[in-house]
Structures are given as structure tokens and as C-alpha cells.
Amino acid sequence: MTALPGLAPSGPASVAGVLTAAGPGVVWAWIALDVQPVPDRTSGEGSDAQRRAEAARADAAWLGGQWDPGAGTRLELRYLHRPGEPLRCCLLGWVQAPTADAAVAAALRLRDRLGVLPAHVRAAPVADLAGVGHRLDPFPAHPSGLVEVRKPIRAGWPSRPDAGVAYYLAVPRFAGGAAGWEPLWQSVAGLEQPFLLTVGLEPYMPSAGFLDMLAEVARNFRRLATAVQAGGGALRGGRNAVLLPDPFAQYAAPLYEDARWRYRSGVFRTRITIASPGPLPVPLVTTIAATICGPHGDGESAYHIVVPEPDELGTAWHNVTTLDNLQWDRAYLRHLPGPVPPGVRLLAEVMDAAEAASGWRLPPAPSAGRPTVFNVGGDYISVNGNDNKIKNVGAAQDDGPKRRILLVCAGPRDDEARDRLTARDDRLLRAAIQRSAERDRIEVVTLNAATIDDLRQALMRGPFDIVHFSGHGTEEGLVFEDDDGQPFVPASSALAELFARRKVRVAVLNACYSLSVGGIAAIGTEFTIAAAGLLSDPGAVEFTRGFYDALGAGLEVPDAFAEGRGAAALKGHSFDAVLLRSAERPGSPPDWTGS
Fold first, then answer.
1. Backbone CA torsion sign across 320, 321, 325, 327
2. What range(s) does the CHAT domain occupy (predicted)?
3. Do 115 and 17 form a contact (C-beta atoms < 8 A)?
4. Is a pLDDT exceeding 90 seen at residue 146?
5. Which one of 164, 324, 416, 467 is least enclosed by Cβ atoms within 10 Å?
6. 3-state secondary structure of 595
């Protein structure tokens, strides 16, 4: 563990599986969880490609829910290969605090949060310090055995005299990667040397200065991308000369315009590292980079493979073994014509959740009858001899009846607020169930970016006791997507009739103005929770937490409704929704108490 100097496990850390190290006035802490695909799980009807796409959407939504820059955490998804063994996946987390006790407590909270994963994977905390250490520092990196995959920084030269700069710089965003990673996993599984692929993310809140820089550069490039009358003067070729659009400005203007909106929030500082104790095969590195980041529509490659200089290897490996983000840049910036402003360098490092999800792929559920390179045959993952039991929250341990919950996350595509809402409700719901004594009797199915057809088809695979809608609502009804990703509001009466036909017992409509549907749905459901007007977002968060805590504890819906509203009130928030019983119209006295 030479890359982690001063490791000093103290008190509760040695018991809890939290690795700590102390510095001047600060304590750092690391945790790890082993992640395994859930065998024999199907995520709905359709082809393998459709199921992979659904899993990728679930991964992206989960990732968006991890963005919390105020928490001061870092997280990392790591794939580890050892010859002759199944491919391993683990989640790593880092926190810091003024004292060891505070660092351990924060690390345990992070570990609990990371352990609430999409339904196609399951996780087990690594309980021993040596196991955490081995996952952080699995082998010494070879001088030719470490590279990073980064955004490229493009350079250009002005074609107009009014540019005001000697050279241009632009950073294309990460393009979406391949839908299926199976060829990549097969290539890794065949390696005769150890190997890791790791994606590190640090939630980051861009400063106002950074966003102002993006806006200013976008304005300048838009100006240069437009033909203008030059006016008089010999330099401009006479009174009637025209300055033609600058080709590089035409290329760069939309990139900066996109960046100024894309990076307002939900941003991660990102590091993608490939490493081995031996020289890395060049074709494999290229395959990995191309799988994570496909070309743009014009065929332009949107990644840059960077190799550290010999004296930078220590810094690069330190980042891997500590989840740090120290910069090493010489080889990365050498091809550029001059200094790179700090704002442009930061732009090359940050990604939003959609970009980061290109490299953040949790293990896929194995297809029926097909071999997989992952360990899915038993209840244990072993790394360096350390065994950890994998707990499958969704698997029933007896033959008792199950309560099934369908979480429907809907709204306009590419809506950052929707993505965070989706991930938040999914995480809160699953965390409440995982804490409960009834967890083995509760199954949660999530529909991400749901269309009305997705909902209808999912209900055909029911029955579901609870349908929980998370998204937007209007006075006309609940907002779904259509097949083109545009907003679509189905007729409230038809949606209510669907709930009744599919024998949904409880409808939780966690959206503004949802009483437009809920008042009708109550005719066919035993209980309906809906709002007549706007819903407070903090209140909705606390209601969801309290409501499913209560259901997980075995309480019935009226008591769970009261618990949810009480949980919101205890934190100073309101949840202005009503509980309607079967055949109860909105005009009836609302049931605020759950009694």
C-alpha cells in the first residue's frame, strides 16, 4: 500500500470496513462494495438490445442521483481482471472530515447510499480493511501500463483579422458510447495479465466565473462565425469588403453554447483510467476508448488517449489508488500551439451525468442461455481471497406473498430536473425498502423515461400493488414521453381506467396537479395519493422517505400516508396532497390524517 502513505485505521474503522488516513487537520476515509449482476433477471419484454438500453438508462439515472457537491465525496466504478478468474466489479468511495469518527460516519453513509443500486445489479460492502486496500491498489502499475481516456482539446487558427487571439481552442463533449459492451468484456476476459478499468467521478458545482467564461467565448465565436461588412481600410480590402465566417468559429460556437447550458449543474470532474502491471495492448486500449466514447455525427473522434511522462506516472497511479484528481498534463497539452487557459482545461475535465454515463456501466444482467464473463453463479465475490456475501434485496427468502411496486419515472427526454427526480425517488424508495424488516417480501420495478406504452405494457406483466408516478403534471394530466421523446399528456380518464383494469391497489401520483388524474383513478383504486396544485420538492422527498419507511415496516397505506406527511413536517416542509379512498371524489372531505 505504498501509494497510500500514513494509513491509520482507528477504532470503528477497523470494524466497519472503512480505511482511514490522517493528515494535518483532516482524516480521509475509503469504502468499497463488490457489485454483481443479478442472474436470471429480465427487465421486461423486448430484445436483448432493448433490455441493455433500459439498464443503461437505469445506470445513468442512478448516477445522476449521486450528484451532491456539498457532500464532499468522490466515487469510482472499477473493473478488475485477473487471469483465470471471472471479471470483478466494485464501487469505491472517498470522504474527508476533521476527525476520524466524523470521517467514518460519513464513509458509512456514502457506502449505504452507493449500495442502493438499479435492479439488475446487487452489492455487498467489503467489510475488511485489507479487502478495501486491495481494491484501491490491486497491483503496481507498469511504466507502459497506464493511460487515461480524456476529452480532446482541439486547436485552430483564426482566418479573420478581428479574432483578437493568436489561436483558438475548443473541447467537444463526450459522445455516447456503444450500447453493448459485450465485445469489450470478452476482450478483457481473454487477457493473460491483470488489468483494471476505472471511472472516477467527483461531484462538482461550476463557479459563476467558469459559466461566464463559457458564455463570453460562445459570444465571440458566434460573432466570428457570421459574415460581416468589414468597412473601410486597407487591411480589410476596401470600403465594401466582407469578412467571411471563420470555419473554426463555426465549429466551436455550438460547442461552447452547448457547454454553457450543459454544465450549469449536475457536473462531475471525471477520470477514466486503464492500467496493468504489464505493458497495455494498444488494440485493447483503442477498443475501450471507442466503446466508451463513440464518434460524433460528423465522424470526429471525441476522445484522446493520454500516456503519462515517466515522472508523471507516480501522480497518475496515486490518483487511482486514492481516488484523487491531481493533474498531469504535459503529454496531453504538448500538441497545442500555446498555453491553455484554466477555464478551458477545466472544461476538458468536467462532464454532465449523460456524458459520464458513457463510461459508467454497471455489470449487465446475463442473457438467458448465454455465457457471461462476470461471476454470477453463486452468492459470493472473492478478490484476493476476501469473500463477501452478496445480498439480493429483491429476492424472496420464503414463499410468502410479495408486495410489488412499479416506479414510473416520466417527463421530457434530456430534462436534467427529471433525471435527478428519477434517481432521487428510485434511491429513496429502494433505500427505505432495504432498511425494512419486510424487504424480502417487496419487489421494486423501475420504468425510466417512460412512455404511456411502457406503462401499459408493464402493467400487463403485473399485478402491481402500488404504482408510484414520479415526474411532471399539469392541470390537464400527467406528462409522459411520446415515441419521439416529446411531452405527451394522456387523457386522465383513460389513465384512470388503465389503473382500474389492471387492478392497481394504490396510486401514488407524486406530481403537481395530479389530482386531475387521481380524482378519477380513486374510483378504481383502493387508495390514491394526489395533489391539487403545486408540490414542494423538499416536501415530496421527505414524504417519499417516510411513506416507504412505513410500508417497509408493515404499516398499511393510511398509516404510511400519515407517516410520510409527518416526516415532511418534522423537517419543516409541507406535502400538500390528499389521500383518497375507493370511490371517493376530490370534492369529498380530504383525508389528511390517514385515520
1. negative
2. 402-567
3. no
4. yes
5. 164
6. coil
Mean pLDDT of 268-282: 94
- How far, in Å, are 359, 429, 456, 587 from residue 321 at the CA level? 19, 33, 47, 61
Q: What is the pLDDT of residue 181?
A: 81
Q: Is the pLDDT of residue 381 over 60?
A: no
Q: Which three cell numbers stand for residue 11?
A: 477504532
Per-state percent for the chain, helix, strand, coil, to nearest 5: 35, 25, 40
Q: What is the dihedral of CA 132, 135, 141, 144, to 10 degrees?
A: -160
Answer whether residue 240 shows pLDDT above 90: no
Enclosing H/E stretch for 434: helix 416-435
What does the alpha-carbon distance between residue 547 and residue 567 come to, in Å, rounded to a whole number?
A: 8
pLDDT digits (tens, 9 = 90+) for 214-234: 999 999 999 999 999 876 554
In one letter, which amino acid is 143? P
For residue 196, give the nearest of 49, 96, 79, 361 by alpha carbon: 79
Question: What's the DSSP call for residue 60?
Answer: H
**472 neighbors 512 (Cβ within 8 angstroms):** yes
Separation CA 518–CA 534 (nearest Å)? 14
What is the per-residue burial (b if ≥16 Cβ within 10 Å, else e) of 246-257?
Answer: bebbebbbebbb
Q: Which residue type does 452 have? A: I
What is the percent of the chain with per-residue pLDDT over 90, rounded to a whole number? 33
Give the chain's end-to-end CA distance (angstroms, integer): 59
Handedness of CA 446, 581, 578, 498 (dihedral sign): positive
Q: Of 379, 390, 323, 385, which Cα lies nearest the Cα of 131?
A: 385
Q: How far apart are CA 545 and CA 564, in angstroms?
A: 7
Rounded CA-CA distance 142/248 in Å is: 39
Question: What are the backbone dihedrals phi and psi of residue 434, each rounded to the nearest 5 degrees, phi first?
Answer: -65, -35
Tally helices (H) and strands (E) across the chain. Answer: 18, 26
Strands 466-470 and 403-409: parallel
Please report, to the nearest 10 degrees, the dihedral formed by the alpha carbons of residues 439, 353, 509, 112 taken in order.
20
Could you tell me if 491 and 507 are in contact, meaning their C-beta atoms sit under 8 angstroms apart? no
- Note the Cα 223 to chain centre separation in Å: 36
Q: In 3D, which of 539, 543, 558, 494 has the Cα closest to residue 520?
A: 494
Taking the C-alpha atoms of residue 346 and residue 327, their distance in angstroms, rounded to an integer, is 10
The mean pLDDT value of the chain amounts to 80
Helices (H), 436-505: 452-460, 492-501
The pLDDT score that the predictor gives to residue 439 is 65
Q: What's the grid cell of residue 419?
A: 433525471
